[in-house]
Amino acid sequence: MVLVLFVRHGHSVSNQNKILSHDVNNYPLTEEGQSQAKNTAKELLKLKITKIFTSPILRAYQTATIIANELGLIPIIDDRLRERYLGDLNNKKFDPSDHWKIKLIKGQIEVKGLEPWESMQRRMIEFVNSIKNEEGAIVAVSHYDPIRALIGYILGLDDISAFGISLPNASITAIEMIDGKFRIHSIGSPILSQELLKRLNRYIITINQR
């Protein structure tokens, strides 16, 4: 049994400028993103967090570092949490009102080298399986598409069918794995609500037992 708290990275320069990028060392967090990460860390202090993993991409690693400092942990880089490989779209600007995914599915554009939905699902499932025997709750800082792909896998949705899943910057998606089965507790939540904390009570009790 493991609870994984997937955190999307905080607001970054790429978000600000509406740029798609899988680059490792570009597009750091904005001041807003740093503040978002600190607020998320305060929420995560409500649970007993034992480890924090992160994508190697700068905006995610910076988010994880801010959270880890608050939790007294050291972030562990895991490449499976990385951003979707964007192929020809890398470092391209996009218009949210005329989304590239819709153009792609309609055949209006061709994108060479784009990582398939199924590839993201496989690596995210592999990540969860690799930590399923960990104690307590685990934080994993990643990106919009990989987290959405895992949710899509659990709900049986393809990339376009899962198009409307909202994962704001620095939001928390809580997914529990029990006996090989997934249970979603929250999707893209800015806080850990009291109702959610009641459902996750066993992870709060742990902190009082140690």
Describe this structure in words.
The protein has helices at 13-16, 31-44, 58-71, 100-105, 117-130, 144-155, 194-199, 201-209, and strands spanning 2-8, 19-20, 49-54, 76-77, 92-93, 137-142, 172-178, 181-184. It has 210 residues and is of the alpha/beta class. The chain has one domain (2-209): Rossmann fold, CATH 3.40.50.1240. The strands form two sheets. A six-stranded mixed β-sheet has the order 4-3-6-1-7-8. Helix 5 packs across helix 6 (144-155). Residues 206-210 have low confidence and may be disordered.
Largest sheet: 6 strands, mixed
Task: State the shape.
Answer: globular
Q: In what range is the share of β-strand residues?
A: 15-25%
Which spans of ≥5 residues are poorly predicted at pLDDT below 50?
206-210
- Briefly, what CATH class? Alpha Beta
Count the domains. 1
Strand line-up across the major sheet:
4-3-6-1-7-8
CATH superfamily grouping: Phosphoglycerate mutase-like
In CATH, the topology is named Rossmann fold
Number of E-type strands: 8
SSE topology string? EHEHEHEEHHEHEEHH
Radius of gyration (Å): 17 Å
Main structural class = alpha/beta
CATH architecture descriptor text? 3-Layer(aba) Sandwich
Average pLDDT metric? 94
Q: Report the total helices.
A: 8
Key attributes of the depicted protein:
6-stranded mixed sheet; 8 helices; 8 strands
Give a brief rundown of this model.
It contains 8 helices and 8 strands; from the N terminus they run βαβαβαββααβαββαα. With 210 residues, it is α/β, with parallel strands linked by helices. The chain has one domain (2-209): Rossmann fold (3-Layer(aba) Sandwich).
